[in-house]
Amino acid sequence: MIRGPGSLLVGMLVASFALPAAGYVPDPEPVARAAAKLNRSAARAQALRIPVRVRAAGGEESVATGILLASPDARARLEVRHVRGFSERQLRRSGGLSGARDGQLLDQPRQLLPPIWVLQAHSGARLLARLGELGGDPNRIQLGYDLGHDCYVLGGRGGPAIWVDQDSLAVVRIDLAGGVSYRIGPVRGEEKGIQLPAWIEVEAPGTPPMRLELGAGVAAQPSDDAFRPEWLTASD
Known about the structure:
The chain contains three helices and 14 strands. The chain is mainly beta. The chain has one domain (1-231): outer membrane lipoprotein receptor (LolB), chain A. Strands 1, 2, 3, 4, 5, 6, 7, 8, 9, 10, 11, 12, 13 and 14 form a 14-stranded antiparallel β-sheet that branches.
C-alpha cells in the first residue's frame, strides 16, 4: 500500500464522526472535499500551461512533444508535434473530446488528453460536479484497489469515476465511459509551488497505452478564444 499524508482525510472525516473501521465507505462529499483541499494546497486550482512529452508506456523514446493548456472550468487543450513530422491537436470541454491532425478534423481522435481539470477543482462540490459532467454519479462511492492504491471510488467502479487514494487523498485514476482510464503518477519529487504529477498514463480499448510526462507547470491566462473548437484547425 502506498502511504501518504492521511491526516488530511482524518481532518475532514473525524470532524463529523469517529475514524471508521477499515472497509467503511464514507459519503462522497467529505472525500471530495479532502481531494479538493489537496488540489488547492498544490496550487493547481488555476489555469496552467504545462510542457509535455509523449511516449509509449514502458518505452524510453519520445514520440511527441508539446504543450498542454488546462483551465479549472472543465476545458483543456493539447498540441503536440510527432517525431514523424505531423502535428496533433486535441480539445476537451466538459466530457467531450475532439481532435485534428495537421489541421484536419478527426472523426474519432485517440484518447490522449486527460480531463486534467479534476486535479484543479478547488472545492468538493466542484469536483463532484466535474464527475457528473464526465457521466459519473456524484452520489455514489465504492471502495477499490488499483496498482498499490486502496481507493475511494467516487462514481463507483465500472463507469466514469474518480479514484482517490485513501491515505494521500490524491486523485490517482480517472475513468471515462467506454473503458478509458487515466492513471495519475506521483507528484514530481523536486517540484515547488505548483505541484503536478510526473506523468499521466492513458489506457483505451484498441490502442496501446501511452504516457504523458508533465514538465513544470506555470500559471496561465488563456484568451477567450483559447478553447474554441476553431482552434483545432486554425493556422498559426
